[in-house]
Design a protein that fits this description.
The complex is a heterodimer of chains A (475) and B (117).
Chain A lengths: L2 H19 L2 H29 L2 E4 L10 E4 L1 H28 L2 H23 L3 H20 L5 H31 L4 H7 L7 H18 L8 H6 L3 H26 L3 H6 L2 H21 L4 H22 L2 H32 L10 H4 L1 H15 L5 H15 L3 H27 L4 H4 L6 H19 L6
Antiparallel strand pairs in A: 1-2
Chain B lengths: L1 H5 L1 H19 L3 H23 L20 H31 L4 H9 L1
Helix pairs in contact in B: 2-3, 3-4
The chains are: A mainly alpha (475), B mainly alpha (117).
């Protein structure tokens, strides 16, 4: 079966087709076909992995480690599902939203770039070759720079430039790390590396490689204090792009961190022999608090959600820093949950932008009465973000708290709860403005958004509640 | 001194790497930042290529006359990395052109001041 190759090739070809035809509706149609097909393939792959174990696919029939191998285990099958799932949900939404914010002649380019970003992210998740990771990572990054620059505001341009500089520095750090590993072992296959590294794991080049990879990947996943590119990039890009990037790009970087720490560099014991757990632990706590507090003071709601992303990534890396089974379960579950919640929130804010033409919080006075469904979705996802029982946010924070308790760190549990309370402050601020203030004249004329925008958002809202009650998939 | 000469390729790599990164961080001009980024990326090409060269080795095309070959893999990898680098710099330049159209300047701090207002 060639499903692993098709997973990457279908969006890649579709991207070329969109650029070739340059017709806005045709491009959208191709995009929706490709996204749904990739989602279907991701589901099939996950089912195969669940029933038959690890899938190894040799590209072009060359046997690993000489050829490039695609290797799918439970972890990356799950990441593939997240990425393609978010993609499949946002494309139906994209048509209305994009046709308002981007000129007709430019729309096919947007879809083409979206598909390239999808290709890159799926490629990073599926491949078992270290250099392949770099190439796919850059494909997705370059495409996302373009998407951000297509935003309605001129600040999108500077945000894209800043992201390009920091993203490229990050990617180059990753290649340096891969280069050092290759010079020491002579192989680029992740699983071959995993066999060879334990023999030389305390040599200086290998430790340097670990350091370079950690910093490079942390730049890509916006670990505090390397998050500076993220707030502007999410705030000034088109609504669909914010939702897609917030839901997928950082999640794939987290997957890379897990893959390098726990597969390539010989597992938990080696990880705990380095100073990495302590560093990650401190940075995660700082992210959870500093970014949440900054989020409270934002006047632009998209910037607020972007800072909240930095804080939520702190929760995920906190789980990784424990490196216990419960901690990693919490981290991976939060990766999945945060993808659903943030993509959903950005879609709903995109809907507000679609009608209101502004994303300033004070402009949204009384909007809860005029756009009841949109704001109800926002409240449910907001509750999930702060970890209310019955939503997905609760499940992952519960596991993170358990992991802290297992280490005997009751104060860390208190900090997790405290950080969630700060989340309540900024979500609460929006709720207060949207529901308890008199509508302004402008808000009074608004109508609910069309169902093609509402339904995809509510799919994610529904998922946030469903997976909060039925945890068999994410845990 | 002999030690430095023995590892000359690595020293050059490190000097290029640090100067590239310094330019990215220190300069406010967006084009100069891209120049620094390009130097930084180029240093990595050297990092990959130099261990692949074996002294006295020849191009890896099998022939009866030679029995010592250089490793071909880094060239293939770096060819890809160069393509990625070119695309990145091209996109960066395009963004700088657009920024100049929108703001009338390509100095980091001036653009920043205009965004504050």
């Amino acid at each position: 079966m060639h499903l692993p190759a098709l997973q990457v090739v279908i969006p890649l070809i579709a991207a070329a087709l969109c650029a070739l035809f340059r017709h806005y509706f045709l491009a959208w149609f191709i995009t929706i076909l490709a996204s749904w097909l990739s989602f279907a393939i991701a589901i099939l792959l996950l089912l195969q992995v669940m029933s038959r174990g690890v899938i190894s696919y040799e590209l072009g029939g060359w046997v690993a480690p000489i050829g490039i191998e695609y290797r799918i285990d439970l972890l990356n099958a799950f990441v593939l599902l997240i990425v393609s799932g978010v993609g499949a949900v946002i494309v139906p939404y994209a048509q209305k939203s994009i046709s308002q914010s981007i000129e007709k002649s430019q729309q096919s380019w947007f879809y083409s770039m979206y598909l390239m970003a999808l290709t890159g992210l799926l490629g990073v998740s599926i491949t078992g070759d270290a250099f392949n990771i770099f190439v796919f990572l850059e494909i997705s990054s370059l495409a996302s720079y373009v998407m951000i620059a297509m935003g309605p505001d001129r600040r999108g341009l500077t945000a894209a430039y800043q992201y390009l500089i920091m993203g490229t520095v990050g990617a180059t750090f990753i290649v340096i790390g891969i280069g050092l590993l290759w010079a020491m072992t002579g192989t680029l296959n992740l699983y071959d590396l995993a066999q060879k590294i334990p023999l030389i794991e305390n040599s200086r080049p290998v430790l340097a490689a670990l350091a370079f990879l950690t910093v490079g990947i942390s730049l890509k996943l916006a670990l505090f204090p390397l998050h500076l590119w993220l707030p502007n990039a999410y705030a000034y890009s088109p609504g669909v792009a914010s939702a897609f990037l917030a839901g997928t790009a950082t999640k794939v970087a987290i997957y890379l961190l897990l893959r390098f720490f726990f597969t390539v560099f010989g597992g938990v014991e080696f990880f705990q022999s380095t100073p990495l757990p302590e560093i990650l632990f401190v940075l995660s706590l700082l992210a959870m608090f500093a970014a949440s507090i900054v989020a409270v003071f934002q006047s632009n709601i998209k910037r607020m959600l972007a800072y909240s992303s930095v804080a939520q990534i702190g929760f995920i890396t906190l789980g990784i820093s424990y490196a216990t089974e419960i901690g990693l379960t919490g981290a991976i579950a939060h990766m999945f949950n945060h993808a659903i919640m943030k993509a959903g929130l950005f879609l709903l804010i995109g809907a507000v932008m679609f009608r209101l033409g502004s994303v300033k919080i004070e402009d949204m006075a009384g909007i809860g009465r005029k756009m009841p469904f949109t704001m109800a979705g926002f409240v449910i996802l907001g509750l999930s973000l702060l970890g209310a029982p019955g939503t997905v946010g609760f499940i992952s924070k519960w596991y993170l708290a358990l992991a802290a308790l297992q280490e005997g760190q009751w104060w860390a549990v208190a900090l997790i709860v405290a950080a969630s309370l700060v989340t309540m402050l900024y979500i609460g601020r929006v709720v207060e403005v949207a529901y308890f203030r008199e509508p302004t004249v402008k808000v009074d004329q608004l109508r609910e958004v069309p169902s093609s925008m509402l339904l995809p958002s509510f799919l994610l809202v529904g998922a946030a509640v469903y997976f909060g009650l039925d945890t068999s998939l994410s845990v | 001194m002999t030690e430095i000469l023995a590892n000359l390729n690595y020293w050059v790599t490190i000097v290029l790497m640090i100067s590239g990164l310094y330019i990215v961080a220190a300069h406010g001009n967006m084009i100069k930042k891209l120049v620094g980024l390009s130097i930084f990326q180029t240093s990595v090409y050297l990092l990959f290529l130099s261990p692949g060269k074996i002294l006295g080795g020849t191009a890896p095309i099998i022939s009866k006359d030679f029995d010592l070959y250089s490793n071909p893999l880094p060239h293939v990898l770096i060819l890809t990395a160069i393509v990625v680098g070119v695309a990145t710099i091209a996109l960066g330049m395009a963004l700088v052109v657009r920024i100049h159209e929108a703001y009338g300047t390509i100095e980091d701090d001036e653009v920043h001041d205009m965004e504050r207002e």
